[in-house]
Amino acid sequence: MKRRVAITGLGAVSPLGVGLPALMDGLERGASGIVRVPALAAVDGLRCQLAGLVPAFEAPDLPRRHRRSMSPMSVFAYLACREALAMAGLEVESARDSLCLILGSTVGSPQTLEAFFADYLPARSLSAIKSTTFFKAMGHAAAANVSQALGLAGPLLAPTAACATGCLAVGLAYDLIAGGRQEMILAGGTDEFHPLVPATFDIMNAASVGFNHSPDQAPRPFDRRRDGVVCAEGAGVLLLEAMDAALARGAKVLAEITGYASSADVSHIAHPEAAAIERCLRLALRDAAVAPGEVDYVNMHATGTLSGDVAEARAVASVFGPDVPVSSLKGHLGHTMAASGALELAASVEMARRGRLAPTRNLSDVDPDCAGLAHLQEPACRAVSTVVKNNFALGGVNAVIVFRSGA
Amino acid sequence: MTDKEIVDLVNKTLAEEFELDPASLRPEAGFAEDLGLDSLDTVDMIIVLEQAFRMKIRDNEAIRGIRTLGDLHAFLIEARDARGA
Description:
The complex is a heterodimer.
Chain A: E1 5-14, E2 17-18, H1 20-29, E3 34-36, E4 50-52, H2 64-67, H3 72-87, H4 92-95, E5 100-104, H5 110-120, H6 133-137, H7 141-150, E6 156-157, H8 165-178, E7 184-191, H9 196-203, E8 234-242, H10 243-248, E9 255-264, H11 274-288, E10 297-300, H12 306-320, E11 325-328, H13 330-333, H14 340-354, E12 356-357, E13 374-375, E14 380-381, E15 386-393, E16 397-405
Parallel strand pairs in A: 5-6, 5-7, 10-11, 10-15, 11-13
Antiparallel strand pairs in A: 1-2, 1-8, 1-9, 3-4, 7-8, 9-16, 12-14, 15-16
Chain B: H1 3-18, H2 39-53, H3 69-84
Helix pairs in contact in B: 1-2, 1-3
């Protein structure tokens, strides 16, 4: 018998600003977080010059002993965790020894890795390498730094599955609470921008290259003129609790996670297959005991790539048919990598609460290959109860979360 | 470099690296108890001082006996003298 799992806190750091209010305000205004980064033009072979960068913000008031090992991705995640805890009305002190943290990033800090190799490679010398470099570059850097800064002494996990990290972390948290192993978990993903991130996609001809002088026109999920991913940075964190414990402490339940599934796509390491996505969707719906017709909205992973959007559109059309509203938030945010699943899940929870769904920004002319869905091209006001969130990654990792809005 | 130039450069380097109040940089200040530096900081202190003074000091045995800022000043003054000798 699964225990019920509540979402009681949301935290967001995104290209639309620091904090969930900035994210939701930007989504409701139809804002774009994408900018042209002139420095990217200096990277030989990199054609994409766009990024979704977190706007300048006031650094958190943390002691130097915490800041010294935090790269931007750890700072983003720290702020998102603080916001989620505050929204849940939870004092860290009350749960310090048991609060579990599951936080992943695509890799350790790429900005730190560049600095390390810039010092190391010219003479193969360690003479300028500081002791804190490792604590920024290690695979679980964000999780470890947030744990230290918040003083969380519960279990610490750092799952990594590139762009599916966010929903994978939340799904793992859901499994642990539903199965009775944990009571309360902060879960999500975080990433910081570095030129090598868009380079990864550009090398595979999967980064947007045609809108460098009109940044707010890219990326363009499902659009006929889409030409690839625009990479971004940020953090998304959700606080999950056992439902009975959340209700007992009088917490406001924002949503209930009712189902989750993750499965591998072994058809190809880089090209998603519609059948594999469909299988994951059906597994998640079965876990939630929800029929496709009961779903009110699907928040798509769609990043604006040529093949990925088609595969997801076909899978979602096959499962849900043509009438369930769908949209991707990548047109507003770009692809926030390991943060994207959790960040867009947090936004979806809030959109469902408000009964206002953001459309897919930059979707003006639906690609016939992505048709057969109720694409939102304008904001939609409607009652939203059951929501499906898709999150997929290079390497063939699929993750789908199902939630029901409210208690 | 004069003794004062060495003291000033040490204090400036440490104040910048570890965000220390210049007023706290008294010769009798202990690195751990007064300046709040821990084991990772002492590793990084050697690195920034090597860069500031353009000399290797990490493997100098005498460094193990340093407890206060005054000890560090004296160590670097001695290192200057040894280099000049």
